[in-house]
Every structure is written in structure tokens, then in C-alpha cells.
């Protein structure tokens, strides 16, 4: 027998789990939701969470913290969150620099660096006990197609195969969504010709909750403060030209630490330990369609940004909650897959998406070009941010991820 739901979410990662929780918290409607995830989800019953040295992290803006506070999950994430009380932006070998202080904005922190596993466990724990939510895991969504009732999704659960149907299908299954491709949804790709190296490091001194963003020849390097005993651990995202990748990966840990230190200098202290190195190619990817009848793309399925400004996940979080808000405004659940509701969501988020994507892409292109006049503009801009309060405040608001209109999904 085919099970029917109001909403089927494919992808139980951070974006999909956030949307599932927001829909259950809806104050106006009750939604029968299925959350489909190919991998087993960690729950709070599996013992206390102790982040390993090599855990991957996400930078949550101040705006994202406020949203997760409203959802009631921030308190579970907070013990693992490294606060960013100051941001130092510079260009290697140049005299211009910008220093932003959270206290100047009346805040303790611009944002927080939180292990992905801590965010995930907090969300999954909050999903437990909702009568209208069915979590299907491990379950692989093999294919999907339109049907008279909405969208039919074919699942593989071990040796078992079955179909489920939703009035609305939400794809939050990553940047290379085979289901989106199956619907013929193309994406625009712009290859930056770079790879991101992601690694955690320990320092010879405390990071003092300062984040460093330095633009270097062919890329950028960001050092983000992690919560740790002694506050001496930082998460690093180092973007390099693709033709340098293998040379850096061939270095031993001491050689890699030396190469990384040469990019940032000794303002952070000395790098004394380097963890496991992960890497991935960098592209700007945007889906040519984010909504169609009965279908929505979220997260990296909708847009994948360069990590230089750390705003990709924060944008996806706002997308998810604005979608929950629009669905909450449906008169009946039969309308959930209709274009009138989905276009309302997209209209609310298009300006936010355009602004965030353009700013992220623009930073890469501004600091990536080699010309004397652009170099002068960059240095003048970094100095001007220190001298012009209005410009500095606007830059800080971008770092804080404060949307012009916060979603109202409850």
C-alpha cells in the first residue's frame, strides 16, 4: 500500500532536518511530513557528543543563531559553538585591512563556528516525538515523478523497494541531485578553478575569538575560532588554484603547517598541530528552476556558493524557514504543491538570494583580479570600511546574516 504525505523531504541533512522541524512547529496547520535520508541519523540517545579534532564545522551567523533560538535548538548547540567577536580582513602583502568588532554592533558575536555533528544531533533530537513526522532512514530515494496526487517517490530500504506520495516534494539532497536531474532541471555552473582545503589546526596561543579572512594570490584563507579548552583551535578553509592542490596534499603535516603559516603570518600565533585535510572543487552553482508544480529545491540543490564569506548555509537556513512560512499560509493542505504558494516563497527569498550570491561571487572576483587599479580600489575599500561608520555597519550586517525580513513560520 502506498503511503501518502503532505510533504516529502528528500535529504535529512542540516537543511532538510531544519525544514522538517519548522513544519512540525507550525502554529496554523498540521502537516504529515516524511523525511527521507540515505544515512542513519544520530540521535540524542547515543551518548554525549564529544567533537573530535577533525570534525567539520559550519559558521552560523548571528541571524542564524536567532532563528535556531526561536526553534528551541540553539541551547543544545551553544556548548560547542566558538563565538566570533571580531573579524580581521586583509590582503596578503598589502597595507589595507579592516577590523570589525561585534561590540560595536551591540553584540557578543557576529556568529558562531559549530561542528556539523553538533548541529545535526541537536536537530535530530528535536525531531523525536512528533506524531505527524515520519523519518525514513536509511532510505534511498531512487527516483521521483509527477502523479495525479502530487509527486511519487520510489524508495530503496535495504532489500525492500516501495513508493510514497507527497503533495509537495522538497529536494534537499545536495549539489548534485540526481532527482533534480531526473526532472530535467539544469544548473548554471561557473568553475572558479579553485579547490577548498578544509582542516582544523591548533595554535600556540588563544585565538581570542577573532576570525581572520585573508585574500592571497589565487584564493583566500579563513581562520575561524572553535570552542576548545584553551581556545587554541581554529577551523581553516584555504582556497587555492586547482593546479596547486596535489602539491599541497603531497606535503607531510609539518610541511603543510609551514605552507599554511606562510599565508596568514604569525598574527594567530604558531600552528602546532594540523588535522586531517579534506578538499573539494569550488563552483558557483545555481539551479535554473527552484520551484515548479509540486517541487522545491533547497540547500545546495538550489545554490552552492564559494565559502569565502561563509554565507551559503545561512542563506539555505533562511530559505527553509521562508518556505515553511509560505506553506503555513496555505488555506488547505491540497494547495501545498501549487505554484501560487511556491512562487510566494520564491518571491520572498529572491532578493536575499541574489544579494548573498552576488556579494560572495563579487568578493572572489574583486580580490582575484590582478591589476594596479583594482589593487588600489581594494586597499582603499578596506581602509574606508574602518573610517566610514555607515559602510562598516553594512559590511557587519552582511557578516551577521541579518535578513531584511525574518521568516515567520510559527
What does this molecule look like?
It is a single chain. With 410 residues, the protein is of the alpha+beta class. It contains 11 helices and 20 strands. The protein has helices at residues 14-24, 62-71, 74-77, 116-127, 178-182, 245-249, 253-264, 312-328, 339-368, 372-387, 389-400; strands at 3-10, 33-36, 57-61, 82-84, 86-91, 97-101, 111-115, 133-136, 140-147, 150-157, 160-171, 187-203, 210-216, 219-225, 233-241, 271-274, 278-287, 291-292, 295-297, 303-304. Strands 5, 6, 12, 13, 14, 15, 16, 17 and 20 form a 9-stranded mixed β-sheet that branches. Strands 1, 2, 8, 9, 10, 11, 18 and 19 form an 8-stranded mixed β-sheet that branches. The chain has a 3-stranded antiparallel β-sheet with strand order 3-7-4. The longest helix has 30 residues, at 339-368. It starts with a strand and ends in a 10-residue tail after the last helix. Residues 5-356 form the FAD-binding domain. Keywords: FAD, Flavoprotein, Monooxygenase, Oxidoreductase. Pfam families: FAD_binding_3 (PF01494). InterPro entries: FAD-bd (IPR002938), FAD/NAD-bd_sf (IPR036188), UbiH/COQ6 (IPR010971), UbiH/COQ6_monooxygenase (IPR051205).
Counting H and I runs of at least 4 residues, what is the number of helices? 11
Pick out the low-confidence regions.
371-385
Which structural class best describes the helix and strand composition?
alpha+beta
Task: Determine the mean pLDDT.
Answer: 87
CATH fold-level name of the domain at 1-43 and 128-186 and 288-368 = FAD/NAD(P)-binding domain
CATH class of the domain at 1-43 and 128-186 and 288-368: Alpha Beta
Principal-axis shape: globular
Beta-strand residue fraction? 25-35%
What is the assigned CATH homologous superfamily of the domain at 1-43 and 128-186 and 288-368?
FAD/NAD(P)-binding domain
The second-level CATH architecture of the domain at 1-43 and 128-186 and 288-368 is 3-Layer(bba) Sandwich
Q: In angstroms, what is the radius of gyration?
A: 22 Å
Helix share of residues?
25-40%
Distance between the termini: 33 Å
For the sheet with most strands, the description reads:
9 strands, mixed
**Number of E strands:** 20
GO molecular function, one term: FAD binding
Family: Belongs to the UbiH/COQ6 family.
InterPro entries: FAD-bd, FAD/NAD-bd_sf, UbiH/COQ6, UbiH/COQ6_monooxygenase
Protein name: 2-octaprenyl-6-methoxyphenyl hydroxylase
Amino acid at each position: 500500500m502506498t503511503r501518502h504525505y503532505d510533504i516529502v523531504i528528500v535529504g535529512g541533512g542540516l537543511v532538510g532536518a531544519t525544514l522538517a522541524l519548522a513544519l512540525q512547529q507550525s502554529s496554523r496547520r498540521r502537516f504529515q511530513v516524511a523525511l527521507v535520508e540515505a544515512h542513519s541519523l544520530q540521535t540524542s540517545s547515543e551518548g554525549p557528543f564529544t567533537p573530535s579534532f577533525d570534525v567539520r564545522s559550519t559558521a552560523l551567523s548571528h541571524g542564524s543563531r536567532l532563528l535556531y533560538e526561536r526553534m528551541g535548538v540553539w541551547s543544545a548547540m551553544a556548548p560547542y559553538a566558538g563565538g566570533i567577536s571580531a573579524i580581521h580582513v586583509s590582503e596578503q602583502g598589502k597595507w589595507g585591512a579592516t577590523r570589525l568588532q561585534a561590540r560595536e554592533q551591540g553584540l557578543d558575536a557576529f556568529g558562531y563556528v559549530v561542528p556539523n555533528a553538533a548541529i545535526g544531533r541537536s536537530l535530530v533530537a528535536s525531531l523525536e516525538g512528533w506524531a505527524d513526522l515520519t523519518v525514513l532512514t536509511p532510505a534511498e530515494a531512487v527516483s521521483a515523478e509527477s502523479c495525479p496526487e502530487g509527486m511519487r517517490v520510489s524508495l530503496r530500504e535495504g532489500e525492500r523497494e516501495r513508493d510514497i506520495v507527497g503533495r509537495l516534494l522538497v529536494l534537499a539532497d545536495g549539489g548534485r541531485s540526481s532527482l533534480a536531474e531526473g526532472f530535467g532541471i539544469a544548473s548554471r555552473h561557473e568553475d572558479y578553478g579553485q579547490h577548498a582545503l578544509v582542516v582544523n589546526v591548533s595554535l600556540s596561543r588563544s585565538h581570542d575569538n577573532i576570525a581572520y579572512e585573508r585574500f592571497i594570490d589565487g584564493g583566500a584563507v579563513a581562520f575561524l575560532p572553535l570552542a576548545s579548552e584553551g581556545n587554541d583551535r581554529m577551523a581553516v578553509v584555504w582556497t587555492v588554484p586547482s593546479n596547486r592542490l596535489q602539491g599541497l596534499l603531497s606535503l607531510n603535516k609539518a610541511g603543510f603547517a609551514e605552507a599554511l603559516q606562510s599565508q596568514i603570518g604569525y598574527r594567530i600565533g604558531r600552528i602546532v598541530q594540523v588535522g586531517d585535510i579534506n578538499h573539494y572543487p569550488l563552483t558557483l552553482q545555481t539551479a535554473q528552476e527552484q520551484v515548479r508544480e509540486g517541487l522545491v529545491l533547497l540547500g545546495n540543490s538550489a545554490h552552492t556558493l564559494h565559502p569565502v564569506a561563509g554565507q551559503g548555509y545561512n542563506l539555505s537556513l533562511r530559505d527553509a524557514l521562508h518556505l515553511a512560512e509560505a506553506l503555513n499560509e496555505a488555506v488547505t493542505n491540497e494547495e501545498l504543491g501549487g505554484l501560487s504558494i511556491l512562487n510566494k516563497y520564491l518571491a520572498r527569498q529572491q532578493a536575499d538570494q541574489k544579494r548573498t550570491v552576488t556579494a560572495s561571487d563579487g568578493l572572489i572576483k574583486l580580490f582575484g583580479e590582478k591589476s594596479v587599479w583594482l589593487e588600489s580600489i581594494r586597499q582603499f575599500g578596506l581602509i574606508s570600511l574602518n573610517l566610514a561608520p555607515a559602510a562598516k555597519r553594512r559590511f557587519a550586517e552582511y557578516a551577521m546574516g541579518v535578513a531584511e525580513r525574518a521568516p515567520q513560520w510559527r
